Structure prediction request, 917 residues.
Amino acid sequence: MPEIDRMFSPRTVALIGATDKEGTVGEATLKNLLIGKGKHSVFPVNPAHETVAGLKCYPNIAAIPEHVDLAVIATPAKSVPEVVDECGKAGVDGVVIISAGFREIGAEGAKLEEEIRRIRARYGFRLLGPNCVGFARPSVHLNATFLKDSPEPGSIAFISQSGALGSAILDWASVSRVGFSLFASMGSMLDLDFGDLIDFLGTDPNTRSIIVYVEGIGIAKKFMSAARGFARTKPIIVLKAGKYNTGAKAVQSHTGALAGDFEVYDAAFKRVGVLRVDAIGDLFNCASVLDSKRLPSGPKVAIVTNAGGPGVVASDKVTDLGGELAKLSEGTIKALDEHLPPYWSHGNPVDVLGDADVSRYETAISTCLADPNVDGLLAICTPQGVTPATDLATAVVRLAKDRQKPILAVWMGEKGVAEARRKFAENSIPTYPTPEEAVKTYMYMYKYRRNLDLLYETPNELPVDLMPPNSHLKLMVKKAIADGKLLLPQSDADKFLDAYNIPRLSGGFAKSEEEALMVARRVGYPVVIKVVSQEIVHKSDVGGVVTNITNSEMLAHEYAKLIDRINILKPDARIDGVYVQKMAKGVDYELILGSKKDRDFGAVLLFGSGGIGVELFKDFAIGLPPINQVLARRMMEETTIYKALSKGLRNRAPANMKALEEVLVRFSGMITDFPEIAEMDINPLSVAEGKVFAVDVRILLDPKPVDRSTPYPHLVIMPYPTKYVVPWKLEDGADVLLRPIRPEDEGIESEFINGLSEETSRYRFFNIVRNLPHSDLVRFCNIDYDREMAIIAEITEGGRRREIGVGRVIAEPDRRRGEFAVVIADQYQAKGLGRKLVDMLIDIAEERRLESIFGVVLKDNAPMLTLCKEMGFTLTPEEDYMRVELALKVDAQRQPTSQAKPLPQEEHHQSAKELAQ
Ligand code: ADP
Ligand code: MG
Prediction:
């Protein structure tokens, strides 16, 4: 069992700094720990006492006669490094440091933290804190916090960076009777951070949704991977503090100036399907509804109410929040006319009037739900005199059963509707005291669903070369950094565009009037000239751009004037020359496409309305590289200019959207390949007669050396791993391409699965699988290459690509073991492909330092079992299947988490590769 699991379900807990002294953290924590005494044993540690709370008290952790799973430390900060070291020596699995007095108090505290970090790395246990409230798991009766009250058990996990806010929220939750599977306060996140906790909770059966209060995310890459892994099965809802504190930094590009923390966090959350909310109450509202199977598939709401006022309030709110009031179909209106009194509202909101009885109310709701124009329904009840509030609730509960469309209940008032609310809660129907809250939640539900849908939409194939030759660019970058010329001149930046096939205007650098005339002759008049100088970033700001030069005399004249002007306006700028560029005609739209490096999330992309007014429009969207066609389209859709681009505006033609998508994807590829790019703007990226081309390109390099120990140090999402693309031959000589699967492969993957024989299908899936829906296929094709790898074997037949086999290995969240599976199309079996795929998976697993890979094979699947035996797997019979497992070679350089443990026996076995040779 990994340390983190033992730490969160300990059988033995030591409290270091335990005391009887009232009002202390040590006393409060001990009390809480003792609540669950039957489930785990508690050992107080304090050299000053013989007994505490009537229990034997130990002088130090070494004196405890049993192995300690979890140590909670509540001693003064100065003593903590030593205590932590003792915990390490005692072989604990996890430590919680509640003590404060570290980074938050300044340099001295930070030094203590550093020491603790070093000690932890030496032993490899997991650590929560310091400076935190601790954690509680009501489901296992564990409360390792100093909170006044114990949270109730439930299915929501709550992770909070701020301990104070955390306890305030718990206080509120206990009044509202919200229960938790886990509460953890993160503190300074010296080790465990949001990514680790989400990974842990992702597989925790007691947790159905995860709510997070975050100030800073910790290791963003870890967070992204964990969140993406579970966002589809467990909703993750985040409240991020600090909307307005975008720390102003010196930036040279428009992208740098525009893409603040808030926007980048937003884009990152969206990218992994995390829902961001903006109020504490929303965290809980969403936690209880997002895990339901009934999420609205659209924004169109029908409102059924027994009072006019609340209906109007609700419909206003719908419009405010970007929802739509469903337009009821004629059929629905007619049906309602038949059943409702003549004075009903004859539209949405459907006002069934104050004297409505159960049957009238029920008919109105079921009629609206049946209307295809309705995506979801708000049922509002305001008790008025005779209204049978509870019976109406019972009716709604009945109607909500086995229906896909969500119903949200607003039963206004308090005492009179308490019984009704209880009914709703019991039947998992979201219920609210006001229409505003209900509408807000509905919109969150819709946003969440839509985000997941879009995220896993199947992208179209784009003709984009993923690996253009770029070594000449790498050389250029190296030289520029060595020379300290961090701002690349456009003539160099052009080479990037050319390599990545991003269309641009022709142009060239000229260091004299004569050269300028030559370039102009080559590109053809009219031309534009632009000053080139390391010291000038925004050229037109200093009169450094002259457009529409129609002939050579004019060019000579304007050239001289430009140089004079700059000499006056920017006397200290060294002018290298000018860039002479073809003048674009008939430009309909000016856009910006850029990138910058964010402190937490690394390289980000920006797309929006461009030109010289770019910082004025503030019309842009942020994305994280790498992006594919769908993600590119999505970024564009988020901007205001998108509508004009895709549809045209007055007499302006629309842009070639496919070409635009391609430009975005290629740009993302370029940013992926060059961690040295600190900031980059293509501004404008212009569109004329639908055609897209770059006009002004600015690349600013990062003088900091790039950390080459990881493949993409500047990205938080693993790009398509091109290194696993290998041409290969079947034993009969047929050509095969082996390559990692992509989201775009959904079509061929589906065809492949459908084409398997019943036997082969059963061997792989343990039953016969046909026509998987999109939601299942995306799980196979749209994968996180950081924790999972699927290699498909592809052949080309008559110009069509076909999948003939696939091997997959999925790392467990703690990255120690990986589960693998291989399946080959029937006609291609016994041609060496299975062995080749298993071989590749072993290589990949070894490279990722997994300790072993394992698989589950049906007992009658003789070919697979033979192959596994030959490749050195150990076979263990289980009830219905064979478990096959292979220990892998692990380098001496281990991840710190398991350093303290002796290496398990199997690790000394030969690797399967050696055995197979
Ligand atoms: P900077 O952004 O440094 O001021 P640009 O090269 O972007 O310099 O030029 C400023 C503006 O001049 C552009 O936003 C664009 O509107 C216009 N412009 C520049 N080059 C051309 C060109 N070749 N054809 C047409 N318009 C141009
Ligand atoms: Mg510009």
The pocket of magnesium ion (ligand 2) is lined by residues 683, 696 (CB under 6 Å). The first strand starts at residue 12 and ends at 16. The chain has a mean pLDDT of 91.
